[in-house]
């Protein structure tokens, strides 16, 4: 620590590094825990920033400093009640807007792309992926502001959607229960699909590096739509780009003289690819709630940290039952190379008191587990 209490990048010195040590595979006194959810969509009192989050996508970058502030406030809301880490969760499709895709937020529906990619020549509409980071300065501003406001209380996790997941939004024009249009591309336009996935990878790498430069202390890549691909399609169209993101981000951090940060890959419903994901260059593999912890550990070995994976709906149970479910989860995962989390994000109607009970139970039972 420097004499003024600031770290080497001018940020307040980190006071609680338990999450980071667990991510790197080091021993910890208890199991760290955090929950995924955009605070602006979950916590009571978020209304003051929700409007800024909804309309951010139609504003020119010069007008986006209020949005940076709203992302910062949304992240900080998580802290007083129950969060031992802070995840800055910018909309995963912000890089797509920077690539030239028009994005609107439709109430009750979510993100919508009025002009989705329909033909191979539509790729010509996209901007150079190298300009994406320069278009997203407001995200980096939010990260720096959040890191400063955290005052070293907890680490800050950066975030991005993975290439296949981003491709689905671009082709489907929004959410989809089948991803049929995006998968049609994989079968009918494989070369164009690879071209698009490469563009997205080339856009994501400087975006993630920029988050670290701005203050992120770990990075999580979400492949939210992995479950729509079977092993064959996943290995062909998702896994190579997941690997490349990790490889390139780590290389660019080294080239920039920056310290490495742990990287997390979370591929929802990607249980069929756990072994491959464990070898993809990430320190942590996130699990959804459909994966048995002991089987996951057998599959990935002891070279990566596992993260997860309580069923989010378990938080609808009583606080007593939540404690019992957490105890079983911790027993199954064991005390080493493990970060507790839900198997996906919090839902808007979940009681914050039950989220707090989940976090408290992890801390309590993980300490007892180490004593025994």
Kindly summarize this structure in a few lines.
The chain has 372 residues and is of the alpha/beta class. It has helices at 18-23, 39-42, 47-55, 65-81, 94-98, 132-135, 137-150, 163-172, 180-188, 190-214, 231-237, 239-255, 274-278, 293-300, 319-333, 352-371, and strands at 86-87, 104-106, 110-112, 156-161, 218-223, 263-267, 284-286, 305-310, 338-342.
Detail the topology: elements first, then pairings.
Layout: H1 18-23, H2 39-42, H3 47-55, H4 65-81, E1 86-87, H5 94-98, E2 104-106, E3 110-112, H6 132-135, H7 137-150, E4 156-161, H8 163-172, H9 180-188, H10 190-214, E5 218-223, H11 231-237, H12 239-255, E6 263-267, H13 274-278, E7 284-286, H14 293-300, E8 305-310, H15 319-333, E9 338-342, H16 352-371
Parallel strand pairs: 1-4, 4-5, 5-6, 6-7, 7-8, 8-9
Antiparallel strand pairs: 2-3
Helix pairs in contact: 3-4, 4-7, 7-10, 8-9, 8-10, 9-10, 10-12, 15-16
Describe this structure in words.
With 372 residues, this protein is α/β, with parallel strands linked by helices. It contains 16 helices and nine strands. The strands form two sheets. It has a seven-stranded parallel β-sheet. A two-stranded antiparallel sheet has the order 2-3. Helix 10 (190-214) packs parallel to helix 12. The longest helix has 25 residues, at 190-214. The chain is globular and about 60 Å long. The model is unreliable at 45-75 and 77-81 (pLDDT under 50).
One letter per element, helices H and strands E, the order comes to HHHHEHEEHHEHHHEHHEHEHEHEH
Shape: globular
Q: Per DSSP, what share of the residues sits in E-state strands of 2 or more residues?
A: 5-15%
The side-by-side strand order for the widest beta sheet comes to 1-4-5-6-7-8-9
Mean pLDDT: 86
Gyration radius (Cα, Å) is 20 Å
In the predicted model, the low-confidence regions spanning at least 5 consecutive residues are 45-75, 77-81
Backbone structural class = alpha/beta
Straight-line N-to-C gap: 35 Å
């Amino acid at each position: 620590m420097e004499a003024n209490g600031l770290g080497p990048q001018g940020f307040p010195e980190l006071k609680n590094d338990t999450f980071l040590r667990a991510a790197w595979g080091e021993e910890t006194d208890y199991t760290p825990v955090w929950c995924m959810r955009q605070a602006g969509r979950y916590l009571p009192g978020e209304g003051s920033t929700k409007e800024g989050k909804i309309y951010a996508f139609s504003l020119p970058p010069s007008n986006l400093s209020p949005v940076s502030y709203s992302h910062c406030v949304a992240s900080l809301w998580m802290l007083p009640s129950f969060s031992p880490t802070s995840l800055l969760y910018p909309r995963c499709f912000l890089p797509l807007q920077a690539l030239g895709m028009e994005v609107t937020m439709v109430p009750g529906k979510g993100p919508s792309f009025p002009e989705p990619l329909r033909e191979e020549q539509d790729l010509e509409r996209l901007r150079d992926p190298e300009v994406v980071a320069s278009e997203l300065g407001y995200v980096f501003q939010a990260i720096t502001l959040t890191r400063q406001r955290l005052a070293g209380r907890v680490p800050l996790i950066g975030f991005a959607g993975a290439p296949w997941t981003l491709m689905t939004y671009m082709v489907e024009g929004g959410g989809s229960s089948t991803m049929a249009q995006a998968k049609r591309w994989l079968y009918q336009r494989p070369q164009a699909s690879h071209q698009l996935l490469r563009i997205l990878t080339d856009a994501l790498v400087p975006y993630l590096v920029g988050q670290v430069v701005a203050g992120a202390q770990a990075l999580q890549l979400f492949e939210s739509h992995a479950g729509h691909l079977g092993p064959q399609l996943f290995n062909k169209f998702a896994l190579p780009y997941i690997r490349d993101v990790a490889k390139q981000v780590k290389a660019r951090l080294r080239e920039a003289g920056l310290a490495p940060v742990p990287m997390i890959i979370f591929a929802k419903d990607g249980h069929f690819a756990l072994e491959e994901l464990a070898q993809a260059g990430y320190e942590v593999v996130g699990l959804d709630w459909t994966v048995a912890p002991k089987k996951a550990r057998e599959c990935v070995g002891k070279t990566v940290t596992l993260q997860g994976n309580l069923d989010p709906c378990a938080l609808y149970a009583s606080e007593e039952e939540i404690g019992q479910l957490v105890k079983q989860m911790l027993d199954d995962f064991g005390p080493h190379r493990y970060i507790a989390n839900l198997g996906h994000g919090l839902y808007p109607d979940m009681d914050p008191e039950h989220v707090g009970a989940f976090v408290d139970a992890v801390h309590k039972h993980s300490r007892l587990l180490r004593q025994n």
